[in-house]
Automatic annotation (TrEMBL):
InterPro entries the record matches: DNA_brk_join_enz, Integrase-like_cat_sf, Integrase_catalytic, Tyrosine_recombinase_XerCD
GO molecular function: DNA binding
Keyword annotations: DNA recombination, DNA-binding
Organism annotation: Thalassoglobus neptunius
Ranges for domain Tyr recombinase: 164-365
Protein name: Site-specific tyrosine recombinase XerD
Gene Ontology annotations of biological process type: DNA integration; DNA recombination
Keyword Ribonucleoprotein appears in the UniProt entry: no
Pfam families: Phage_integrase (PF00589)
Assigned protein family: Belongs to the 'phage' integrase family.
Length: 389
């Protein structure tokens, strides 16, 4: 609820009133045109009532003005990644629906947006559809709280998504990715990218975490090799879980970092060279790594009408799979910086499936498997002959 307070500035004739605009988070001030406190308080009471029970005018605000108000209110304090996610949803809504005002977004328009996301050129998974619908619902809930709309439309989310989005990269596939880097990025820049890819493989870092990893600056994400055990120092604003953390580092990654000469341990740990010799933005880095996966023909999943090639996140999955056979779920959760143990447990489901398959294979001697295969072939031949008689 908006609260309006009355005050008199030094040197001013009239009392003024002030309140916080819920659309922007900024302070707003208006003169009461009164020199008497009692009259000024009556003016403030009427204004407060009007602000908390707005007319229909706000519902006719143009979409672009509404977007500006939302960004001014919600972006401060949010990470760059969160802002980009919100901006991507706004852009999709504008491209698919071209809304004149926030009030035109109804249940039918929400369904149309979901269809549009699925029908995009390369195809999108239900995970992508759900992510954008959740973001739009968050935007419209803010619109409802701030009287831009009167009703929240219904959101029919994709059904519960089962199974992994894609599989982890194998060691052999990782080697193939390293081999194609010079062909994709050029010999002169290959070493810096090979260093990054290898670092992602051994560290389990997200690509944005890797790109902010620093040797000496603790303001974001820093390497700490000074203690008994190698650690990561992660500030709250630089981490997905939004918490300051001091977390263990995988020994392989620590050994990888120890191979760097001490005199070179300054600045950012990973500095892949862009087109002009500068360190590129994280989005460009992610797209380039996916190009490596495509060039190496490392396909991690296939949906109708599209193929997904190995990306930076699939290297992170490989890290999780490797360590799930070495440590318990709670330890792996800390190593991968998961916010929920449910996410971590997915790696154990995959690991358990492989172990079960191995036990089944070991339980049956190979000569019996071969004998069964021969029996199956003979049976099939007999059936075919019987049908021809």
């Amino acid at each position: 609820m908006i609260r309006v307070r009355v005050f008199l500035r030094s040197g001013r004739k009239f009392y003024e009133c002030q309140w916080e605009d819920p659309a922007t988070g900024l302070k707003k001030t208006r003169s009461t045109k009164s020199t008497r406190l009692r009259d000024a308080e009556r003016f403030a009471a009427r204004l407060e009532q009007d602000l908390n029970n707005p007319s229909d005018d706000i519902e006719h605000v143009r979409w672009d003005i509404f977007r500006q108000a939302y960004e001014a209110s919600e972006y401060p304090g949010k990470s760059i990644k969160t802002q980009r996610t919100t901006a991507a949803t706004f852009n999709l809504v504008e491209k698919a629906l071209s809304p004149a005002r926030p009030t035109v977004i109804d249940t039918r328009k929400v369904a149309k947006l979901a269809h549009s996301i699925r029908a995009r050129k390369r195809g999108n998974s239900e995970f992508t559809v759900k992510r954008h619908l959740i973001e739009l619902r968050k935007i419209l809930r803010w619109a409802l709280r701030n009287h831009y709309i009167q009703h929240l439309p219904n959101f029919e989310m994709p059904k519960k998504l089962k199974g992994a989005k894609s599989r982890a990269v194998t060691s052999e596939e990782f080697d193939r990715i390293l081999k194609v880097i010079p062909d994709v990025i050029g010999e002169d820049r290959a070493a810096s990218w090979e260093f990054l890819i290898t670092g992602l493989w051994w560290s389990g870092l997200r690509v944005d975490e890797a790109m902010s990893l620093h040797w000496t600056d603790p303001s974001n994400l820093m390497v700490d090799l000074s203690g008994k055990y190698p650690m990561f120092q992660i500030q709250a604003h630089a981490e997905k879980g939004r918490k300051f953390r001091l977390l263990p580092m995988a020994p392989e990654f620590a050994g990888f970092l120890e191979s760097v000469p001490r005199k070179k341990r300054r600045g950012l740990v990973f500095r892949p060279q862009g087109r002009h010799g500068t360190v590129p933005l994280t989005d460009w880095v992610s797209k380039t790594i996916s190009k490596f996966g495509r060039a190496a023909r490392v396909q991690v999943s296939q949906r109708e009408g599209s193929e997904k090639w190995a990306s930076a996140h699939d290297l992170r999955r490989a890290f999780g799979i490797r360590w799930s056979s070495r440590v318990d779920a709670k330890t792996l959760m800390e190593m991968m910086r998961h916010e929920s143990i449910v996410t971590t447990q997915q790696f154990y489901l995959l690991q358990q499936a492989e172990l079960t398959a191995a036990r089944i294979a070991e339980a049956m001697p190979q000569d019996e498997v071969a004998g069964f295969a021969n029996t199956s072939t003979n049976t099939s031949d007999s059936l075919r002959k019987a049908k021809t008689k």
